[in-house]
Amino acid sequence: MKLILLSGGSGKRLWPLSNDARSKQFLRLLQNEQGDMESMIQRIWKQLGAVHLQEDSIISTSSTQVDIIQNQIGCDVELLVEPHRRDTFPAIALAAVYLYSMKEISMNEVCVVMPVDAYVDDAFFEKLKQLEHVLGDSEAQLALVGVKPTYPSEKYGYIVPHPRHDSMPYYQVNHFTEKPSKDVAEKLIEQQALWNCGVFAFRLETMITSLIDKGIPIHFEELLRQYHGLSSISFDYEVVEKTSRIAVLPYEGSWSDLGTWNTLTNQMKERQVGKGLVDETCRSTHLVNELDIPVVVMGLSNAIVAASPDGILIAEKTVSHHVKEIVKDIATRPMFEERRWGWYRVLDHDKSVDGREVLTKRIGVSAGKNLSYQLHYMRSEVWTIIRGEGVFCLDDKIFHVQAGDVLTIPVETKHAIKAITDLEFIEVQTGVSLVEEDIIRIYMTWEEIEKNCAWV
């Protein structure tokens, strides 16, 4: 069995913490058994390790998420990077073709697809393993996992099964109902309907044959070249709703889609994350603060107060899911990003009438990690080391740096830094186009840098 984890989307449903660079699955707001904060993707990757599924898993993602995935769960995870952002059908098609033409997986192999941000118990993954048997026993083209509803939700899609007349552990699917009203949801539950949690399985042959019928290339390099021309459509609409033989395996354990502040705070063990205070007059109110200044919350009930460099949200929890629509026209660059080497936070951005820009960042590099050896055509930089020590390379010369050092990097000057201890510095960029794309990378690893540069 091969597991395809979908990690996509730009995500503003958890604004201001989630943005174009940091989707909800990367927010470190869940507390693990040791009391440390972890993200949804860290939690699920740890669970996959516990049930011995990591080695058979690949993560389908976009280029903008590669750094943060590697920062949070390591560089050894197998990533499949979409050349262009599309919906779930193109992403799953690309993964299937990769397994078929690059990994040369057997056409009889069962592929299980699931989102990377599901909040589930470990027992859920044991249920996934049963999908292989469901496909064989039912002779279905697709096998789904459906969650037994705990209340008549209007936010989820429902899988409506045919009545079961035998002792088999699965149902045959009759039809699907998308986000019904509460009254309709209650009637669906009476019909043994299940929540659609976005988990499904197919044999690789089924998917490859379907792609051939649709005229989609089944050789990986060719599909990459044509990927931009694929329609942006969900797997549900393109495949599931057009498939006649579908089985569903019920799951009665814990499952939650932490896609809104309301559902996420239900799983947070502490009502406060970050600097500040939620006083005793508050009821069912949570504070999440990523700023370096304290936030005090008083007298609010059933509210979320979230603050980050991207903005501040104060909302009653039951309406917090509308934030995505409210902020859709707020066009600002992400003010905080995690990278494979650490993180950065934008402190200030100023643009003058003549087009000159000044951008100030606080950058953290984790011990043992390094920024690539790079240069910029559109900007100069000044770095002031404020914490830790490291090794700096400037135009092929390497030397030690520490707190208090000021490093000047003119336009088109090659440079890189490696942290010996956790390292922080203030970066001031000056130029006419201060964009992340203005980076020419020469070497990625410090080993390459030391091989081609000299100590002074």
TrEMBL record:
Which positions, given as ranges, span the membrane?
none
Report the SUPFAM superfamilies cross-referenced here.
Nucleotide-diphospho-sugar transferases (SSF53448), RmlC-like cupins (SSF51182)
- For whether the record's keyword set contains Transcription regulation, the answer is no
GO function terms (MF aspect)? mannose-1-phosphate guanylyltransferase (GTP) activity
Question: Which superkingdom heads the taxonomic lineage of this protein's source?
Answer: Bacteria
Pfam families found in the cross-reference section: MannoseP_isomer, NTP_transferase
One GO term of the biological process aspect: GDP-mannose biosynthetic process
Sorted alphabetically, the keyword list is: Nucleotidyltransferase, Transferase
Could you tell me which residue ranges the Nucleotidyl transferase domain spans?
4-268
Keyword Calcium found: no
Query: For the Mannose-6-phosphate isomerase type II C-terminal domain, which residue ranges apply?
Result: 339-442
CDD domains annotated for this entry? Answer: cupin_PMI_typeII_C (cd02213)
* Name of the protein this chain belongs to: Mannose-1-phosphate guanylyltransferase
Please tell me the species this chain comes from.
Brevibacillus centrosporus
Lineage here is:
Bacteria, Bacillati, Bacillota, Bacilli, Bacillales
